Every structure is written in structure tokens, then in C-alpha cells.
Amino acid sequence: MDLDLRKLRYFAAVAEHRNFGRAAEQLFITQPVLSRQIKAFEQELECALLVRTTRSVELTAAGTQLYEEAQRILGAVTAAVRRVHDAERGAQRLVVAFSPGLRVSDAIRAFTSRYPDVETDVVPARWWQPDAPLRDGRAQVGYLRQPFDASGLRTIPIGHEPRVACMPATHPLARREKLTRADLDGETMLDAASRPMSSIEEKFELIAAGHGIALISLSAARSYSRPDLVHLPVTDAPGAETCLAVAADRREKQLLRDFLEIATATLRPT
Predict the structure, then answer these.
(1) CB–CB of 210/97 below 8 Å?
(2) Is the peptide bond before 130 cis (omega within 30 degrees of 0)?
(3) CATH code for 163-233?
(4) Range(s) of the chain covered by CATH 3.40.190.10
(5) Which residues, in sequence order, are bridge partners of residue 168?
(6) Is the pTM of this model over 0.90?
(7) Structural contact between residues 178 and 234, judged by C-beta atoms closer than 8 angstroms
(8) Helix axes 20-27 and 31-45, enclosed angle (nearest 10)
(9) What are 31-36's contacts with CB under 8 Å, separation 24+?
(10) Helix, strand, coil shares of the chain as percentages rounded to 5?
(11) CATH class of the domain whose range is 92-152+241-267
């Protein structure tokens, strides 16, 4: 069957908001129209994507998988259309993916000062699959946090950052100044393996709601700071390596090589 991109966009909006009303507002259509389109989409795929109740909308296992696929598909389609328009205008563009909490703006500013005519964009890399924008063509280079599947990629080490335990401010451990991994024994730990999550914002919301504790990078914790959460250093937890990454099977243009050189010098800690 041919995948209907319009219905896929409709589904992705509902999956993101977990609410038909808010999704319909984003899409500028009425809620009944959106509901009919989603039902038709489920019939075409011959599987249930959503579990609807009077108070919430949840994803089925098939819906969770499709939402992950939809973000890559829709992002790749948008990037392809943009490249077509760039080719028509004769424009040069560099797109940089970045992991949550990592700041690549200093490198982009340094690059732009040398190449003011090159248009630059950024795309967020999902925490559970940060290499996806490089593989589906949405970005030429990534400033990413490991671990991820580095097969077919060339990586340049940049730095290292500690992981912290993020928990509700009301948790008994929240009064501590620091923790060890032994302190977390018996606690419910939230990660991609135990509970699939569509975004880091969803992870923080689940933590705040008391569903568990998560080990996250310090930069992500600081970037998404909120008063109902605390993050504490875990002295014996392994840290996270950061790196620049590009597809190894593509010929690097001079523009990309120059960005890698500039970004390496700019982002590496002195």
C-alpha cells in the first residue's frame, strides 16, 4: 500500500499531543475531521494505533512504532523538499543535528563568520536515536552524545560530561548532596528499555509525576531545569562522551570539512 503522508502527519500530531483537540488546532482542522482521518488511517494499516478514552489518548505498541517511524519519514520528506528548493535557488545550506542539552551555537556562529553566505539550520536529535538525522538525510553533521550506533559514521571526540540522577523534588533522596549507584538500588529507573518515551520532555514529566528516576547528562538536566525536579551527581556513574559525527560513506565537501575543523576547535573544552 502507498503511505498517505497527510494522514501520517495527522497521526503524528495526535501522538505528540496525546489529545485530538490540541492536535486539530495545530493542524487547522476540526476535531471530527481529524478523528475520521485517524480511523481511516488505522483501517488502511489494518491495525490499531491509539487507545482512546474520555480523558486521554495513548499509543498502542504499533502506534508507538509508527510515531518513531513518522518522525524520521516526515523529517526526511521536509529535508528533501528544502534541498530541492535550495538547488533551484543555488543556495548552500549546512544542517547540524544536536543532542538534547548540547549547545552547538558557538560553532555555528564561528562558521557563519567565515561563510556568511551559507545558510545554517539545526535539527534536534532524539535522545533514543541521535544518529537518525544523519542516516535519513535531515542533517550533514551531528553534535551528539554517545552511546549510539556509530556504524557507517565517522566520529570526532569532543568532550565528556557527568550523568546525574533526576528525581522529583519530593523524593527522599532529593535532600542528599550526592549519590552513588548503590543509593539507587531498588529505585524504579526510567530508560528507553523499560519504558519507550517520545521525547526528553515526556521523560521529565514522568519523573515529576513519580514514575521513577533517570540518569541523564548534566547538560540536559540544566537545559530542562524545572522547580519540581532535582538532579544530583552520582559519583560512580559512567559519564557521557560527546562527539561530532558525519556519514562515513559520503564524500565530505570542503564546506563540511571546514565546519568540522571549526566546531572541533570551538566545542572542545580548553
Answers:
(1) no
(2) no
(3) 3.40.190.10
(4) 92-152+241-267, 163-233
(5) 229
(6) no
(7) yes
(8) 100
(9) 34/10
(10) 45, 20, 35
(11) alpha beta
Which residue's C-alpha cell is 552513588? Answer: 180
The distance from CA 7 to its chain's CA centroid, rounded to whole angstroms, is 22
pLDDT at position 254: 87
Confidence of residue 251 (pLDDT cuts 50, 70, 90): low
Average pLDDT on 120-139 reads: 88
Would you tell me the crossing angle of helices 61-89 and 5-17 to the nearest 10 degrees? Answer: 120
Instruction: Return d(Cα 263, Cα 239) in angstroms, integer.
Output: 22
CA 265 to CA 111: how far, in whole Å? 11
**Hunting for cell 528525581 — which residue is that?**
167
User: Residue type for 49, please?
Assistant: L
Question: Where in the chain is CATH 1.10.10.10?
Answer: 5-69
Q: Which fold has domain 5-69?
A: Arc Repressor Mutant, subunit A (1.10.10)
Can you give the pLDDT at residue 50?
A: 93
The half-sphere exposure of 90 on its side-chain side, counting CA atoms within 13 A, is: 0
Q: Return the SS3 of 75.
A: helix
pLDDT digits (tens, 9 = 90+) for 192-226: 767 767 678 888 999 999 999 999 999 989 888 89
CA–CA dist 172, 44 (Å, integer):
49
Q: How many residues appear in the chain? A: 270
Burial of 156 (0-12, 13-18, 19+ CB in 10 A): middle
Q: Provide CB contacts within 8 A for 36, sequence distance 6+.
A: none
